[in-house]
Amino acid sequence: MYTLLKKEKRARRGRFETPHGTIETPVFMNVGTLGVIKGAVSSMDLKEIGCQVELSNTYHLHLRPGDKLVNKMGGLHRFMNWDGPILTDSGGFQVFSLAKIRKIKEEGVYFSSHIDGSRIFMGPEESMRIQSHLGSTIAMAFDECIELPAEREYVERSVERTTRWLVRSKNEIDRLNAQENTINKKQMLFGINQGGTYEDIRIRHAKEIAKMDLDGYAIGGLAVGETHEEMYRTLDAVVPHLPEDKPIYLMGVGTPENILESVERGVDFFDCVLPARNGRHGHVFTARGKINLNNKRFEMDEKPIDEGCQCPACRHYTRGYIRHLFKAKEMLALRLCVLHNLYFYNKLMEDIRRAIDEDRFHEFKAQKLADWSRGQEPHIEK
After folding, report:
1. Closest by CA position to 165, among listed 235, 231, 95, 100
2. Domains of the chain
3. Rounded CA separation 367/371 (Å)
4. 271 labelled catalytic
5. Which parts of the sequence bind substrate (predicted)?
6. Is the bond preceding 254 in cis, omega lying within 30 degrees of 0?
7. 45 vs 42: CA distance, rounded Å
8. Was 43 annotated as part of a binding site?
9. Which of 87, 152, 259, 262 lies at a C-alpha separation of 20 to 30 Å from 253?
10. Cα three-residue angle 96-60-212, rounded to 5 degrees
11. 309-335: per-residue pLDDT in tens?
């Protein structure tokens, strides 16, 4: 159940009760596609860096180690030793990302495995069964993530099919939750709004799926090639037509700037591979903007990655040492930078929640954007 605790204009501060614990929103979900954060980050580390929700991927876990194996091991929570909420993506994004090796039909999508080329079929029922096997807290409905730009006629047909797939997803998850051997009989379902950058299609679809009284609603098909301005314009159009008493999730977004802009427009949930991916390449976020630790100017830098940061990397190591680890190709470099970046994102969300609680989100946003863009002295939250 979602409780709206506070609003500052359109920015929302909420609390979402789930079978695996309470989520304070706005929240950033730490992405562990295969049930692990890339960069040697453990589930115990996630607790230390303030992660509230871990996100894994249905398609990838279906291929390896296999959802049936995970089910026999007691479900994804037990398998990866994480007792907090887990959201599983439906596999629908792979409809977009694997465009060259898939074929979409009414019954679902035919894939060729990116691992060994074997034939795979996934439709709404298959996606729900896999997610039920995994026992995640929140399952995402199966949809088509549309490639942009897209012709209006195709977008309309795709959205209509996504709506039909949502009905099938809901019917199947209701059936699975009622079965005796289901691991998580209270598994939640989020529907996904699609429509490209066509505002009228987005709004029509939002109104239609809002009638289904789902546990939450996601906005998909953004951050896939459109400009930031197009994304924000789409959010301005669609968010007011989604239920205010349910969490709103913007899929695959994004940069710290994207998050601030989207919170201002009423978004509650975020996820993105960006902080972990950037960290694995030495690109780290700081209160003064992003820096690249591979640069020679950090060779003898005795400062932590970000002064004032309380992440495990900043508490114990210097920029110069971490740069040395990258040059020596030591795994510890990746681990420390991924831990730092995820801590940065989780702390940013904590600070956003506090700012909304204290009716100063808009001032907070303006200060953060100024600090990041101009490299001023950091504005540290006390």
Report:
1. 95
2. 2-91+126-272 (3.20.20.105), 279-367 (no CATH)
3. 6
4. yes
5. 89-93, 143, 194, 221
6. yes
7. 5
8. no
9. 152
10. 60
11. 999 999 999 999 999 999 999 999 999
Q: How far apart are CA 25 and CA 350, in angstroms?
A: 9
- Active-site position among 67, 215, 271, 371: 271
Provide the 10 A C-beta neighbour count for residue 109: 23
Structure tokens at 127: 């996606």
CB 132 within 8 A of CB 169: no
Q: Which H or E element spans position 17? A: strand 11-18
- Is 314 part of any known ligand binding site? yes
Report, in this order, helix, strand and coil percent for the chain, each rounded to 5. 45, 20, 35
Q: Is the pTM of this model over 0.85?
A: yes
Placement of tokens 């505002």 in the chain: 199
Output the six-digit token pair for 235. 């959010």
Angle CA 67–142–32, to nearest 5: 50
Q: pLDDT tier at 281 (50, 70, 90 boundaries)?
A: very high
* Measured distance CA(240)–CA(226) in Å, rounded: 21
340 labeled binding residue: yes
The encoded tokens of residue 267 equal: 């978004």
Active-site residue flag, 89: yes
Q: Give dist(CA 355, CA 13) in Å, integer.
A: 10
**Position 230 confidence tier, pLDDT thresholds 50, 70, 90:** very high
